[in-house]
Amino acid sequence: MMTTSYTDIQRLFEQRKNNPLFNTSYPLSPGDWAKYSTSGTLSFDASKPIAFYLHIPFCRQICSFCEYTKMCVPDTEKQRNYIATLIRDIERFVEKYPEWKFYGFDIGGGTPTALDPEVFSELMIWYKHFIGERMVTDRFEPSIEGTFDSMASDYQGYHKSRLIAKARIKRLSLGVQSTSDKVLNPLHRNTISSKEMAEAIEEWHRLGISKINLDLMYGLPGQTVENIRKDIEVIRMLNPEQVTVYEFRTNQLNAPYKTDNDTCFTQYCELYEGLIRLEYYGEFGRNTFSRDAHDMGLSSYLRHRMFDGWQYKGFGISAQSMSEYGVSYNMGKNESTGKLIDNHSYESIAYYDLPSNELLNKFIAISGYSGGFSLSGAKSLFGEDFATRYNHILHFLIDEKLATISGDRLQLTKTGFRHYGAILSLFYSLGTV
C-alpha cells in the first residue's frame, strides 16, 4: 500500500536524497518488473504517431564510463549482417502498420559512424528510401550519433557526412564528454583538438547538416570545475547549435569510481551558467540546451519521448520500446553482444505488461532528464485522477520549495535538482522501495 502522510514523504525523501540508486533509471532493478513479465509482443496504437530508434552497438574503442550495450567494431561482414538483420526486423514490423505516421527516427549506439564506409553507405541509402515512403509529422526531425574521430579525421569522415546530408538527416550528435586529456585518457577515450573539431563542424554545415549537438559529461573521475570552464570555452569557440550535458552515474555497470551529489551539482551549475552566458536556452535542471528557444535541443524522437511520453519502437540488440501497454527490451540487454550479432533477429525477448502506475514511473524517470515532467503526459499514462492520487507528493514538493508547477509543467527548483533522484522516486511505489 502506498504511504500518504506528509511525514512519510519527508522521511523517504531524507532517506533517498544521498543514494545514487535513485536517478533517471527505472526500474531500479530488473527483478522489480518480474511479476509483469508476459508472453507475446508489445502492442502499439496505430492511430498515434510513432518513432523508431536503431541501435548500432559498434565503437572503435570502449570507454570505461559507458553503460550502453556496445562492442568493438567487428569485421565488415559482421557489420553488414547486423544491419541486414536490423532492417529485416523493421520491415517485418511495419508490414503490420503500413499507414503509420512517424514523429521521429534516431540512429544511435554505440557509434553508428564507426561502421565501415560501405556498410554505412548501405544504411543511409536504406534509411532515405524507407523514410521517403512514409508519412511524417510536421516537426519530424531525425538524428544520428557519431564521434569526431570516426568522421572528421580523414576523407572517409567527409564521405560519411555527405551520406548523412543526402539522407536528409539534419541533426548530428557527437560525444565530446570532456576536452581534457587528463580526464578522458584514463577512461580509454581520446580527445581531438578544438581546431579539428571546428574544421569538421564547418564542413558539415557546408554540406547541409544544420544542427550539430555536442555531448558533455560532468562528475567524471578527476574532473574539476576548471575542466568544465575549459569545456565551456571550447563550446564558445565551436558554437554548436545544441549542447547536451550528462551526469556520470555512480551506479553504472562495473564503475569503481564513486562521486557525490555535491560534486555533480557544482559541476552542473558551472555548465548551466556557462551555457546561459553563451546565450543557449535551457531551464535549470534540464540537460539539453539550444541556440533556438523552440526546439529544446533535441531530436523529435527525444523531444516527444521525454516531454510527452509518446510511443516508440527500438530495433537492434538491447533496444527498448514503450507504448501505453507496457515496455519491451530486445535480446542483448544483459547478454554478450558478440554472441548475438549473427542472429537472424534481435526482436524483443522481454515484454512487460505494465499497470498505469508503472508506466507513470517509467515516464517520470525518462522525463527526469528535463528536470521535471508534463502533468498532461502523466495523466495520459496514469489516468485523470493523477493529481488526486499524488496530491500529497505534489504538495510536499511545493511546500518544501523543491518544485514549482506552472501550467502543464512540474519543474524542479534549484534546491530540488540537487536531489532530483530522490524527488522522482517519490512517485514510485513508496511502500515497497
Task: Kindly describe this structure.
The strands form four sheets. Strands 2, 5, 6, 7, 8, 9, 10, 11 and 12 form a nine-stranded mixed β-sheet that branches. Strands 1-15-14-13 form a four-stranded antiparallel β-sheet, with no helix packed on it. The chain has two domains: 91 residues, Arc Repressor Mutant, subunit A (Orthogonal Bundle), CATH 1.10.10; 256 residues, pyruvate-formate lyase- activating enzyme (Alpha-Beta Horseshoe). With 433 residues, the protein is an alpha/beta fold. The chain is built from 16 helices and 18 strands. The mean pLDDT is 90. It is globular and about 60 Å long. InterPro entries: Coproporphyrinogen-III_oxidase, Elp3/MiaA/NifB-like_rSAM, rSAM, rSAM_horseshoe, rSAM_sf. One of its GO terms (cellular component) is cytoplasm.
Report, as a whole number of angstroms, the end-to-end distance.
Answer: 11 Å
Characterize the overall form. Answer: globular
CATH fold naming of the largest domain: pyruvate-formate lyase- activating enzyme
CATH structural architecture of the largest domain: Alpha-Beta Horseshoe
Strand content: 15-25%
Main sheet overview: 9 strands, mixed
Mean pLDDT: 90
- Report the CATH C-level class of the largest domain: Alpha Beta
Instruction: Name the helicity range.
Output: 25-40%
Low-confidence stretches: none
Total helix count?
A: 16
Rg is: 21 Å
Integer count of domains: 2
Number of strands: 18
Q: Could you give me the name of the CATH homologous superfamily of the largest domain? A: tm_1862 like domain
Structural class: alpha/beta
